[in-house]
Amino acid sequence: MQVGRYEIIDVIGTGANSKVVRAHDPMIGRIVAIKLFSPGLAQGAGRDKFLQEARVVGQLSHPCVVTLHDMGIDEATQTPYLVMEFLEGQPLDKLLGKGSIPLPRACAWVGEIASALHLAHRRGVIHGDIKPANILILDDGRVKLTDFGMARLASHDKKDTPLLGTPAYWCPEQIIGRSQDARSDIFSLGVVLYEMVTGKRPFDSDSLQGICTRVLSSKPLPVSQANPSVPTAFDSIVAKCLEKDPGHRYPSVDLLAAELYPLARRKPSGQPQAHTSTFRERATRLLRSA
Predict the structure, then answer these.
(1) Are residue 45 and residue 102 in the same domain, yes or no?
(2) Of 50, 85, 81, the residue nearest 67 (C-alpha)
(3) 258 lies in which domain range?
C-alpha cells in the first residue's frame, strides 16, 4: 500500500479514529511513522481545519515533541495523514501495564513533557489529549510527547466538541463543555503523574458516567497513601494539578516543572541514584529555549 509518496511497511498501532503505520520515504530514503485519519476528517470545512492544525503542529520544534516532517491528503483515498519521525520505544501506557514508575524517573519525565507543553502553550496551542498512550519512552530513556493532532488553537476552543480525548484523563471543564486552556493540559498531566507513581488512575470507574462524576466531584486518595514510599510533600503537587477549578491549578506548566526538580533528583531509599542528577539543568535549558 501507499499513501502520498510513502510506501507503507506495517501497522504500528490503531486507535478509535486513526492508525499509525511504519513507512518508507523513497525521496529521502528514511523510515517514518505516518498517522492515518478517517477520510471524513478532511471533508468540507474539515479539510481546512485539518491543514491548519497540521501547520500548527509542524511549528512546534522541541526535543520532547515528536517531529512532524510532512502532511497531506491522499488523492486516491482522501485519507488525511501526518508524517512524523520514526522512533524506537514504547508508549508509557505499556510501561504502566508492568507497574508504577519510580518517583524520580516519573518526575523527570513529566518535567520534560512540561517543557514541551510550555512551548506549545506560549504559542496558544493546547494538546487536549494528554494520556500515557501519547507519551513515548524511547529506548535510550528520553521522553517524547506525541499526537498533537488533537491540538487546537486555544482561541478557537469554544467552537470544538468538548469531549475530545480519553475519559480517564478529561478535566472538569472538558466534561461540562467550557473553554479549555493551558491549565486543562495541567489537569490531565496531573492524572498521568498520579498514575505513574501509584499505578492507579485517580478517577477510574467502570462507566463513562462514573468517570465523569468522579472527575467533577470526588477527591482522589493522596498519593502518599496510595504509595507510602512517596514523600507527603508530593501530595500537594499532584493535588494542585487536580484542582476542579482551573484558577486553583498551576497557572503554567513551567511552575509545575520547577516543583518537580528536587523530587527528580531524589535518591530512592536503598537504591542507587537515578539518572536525573542533571534534570534541573536540562529542563531549565528546555524551558528557556521554548
Answers:
(1) no
(2) 85
(3) 89-289
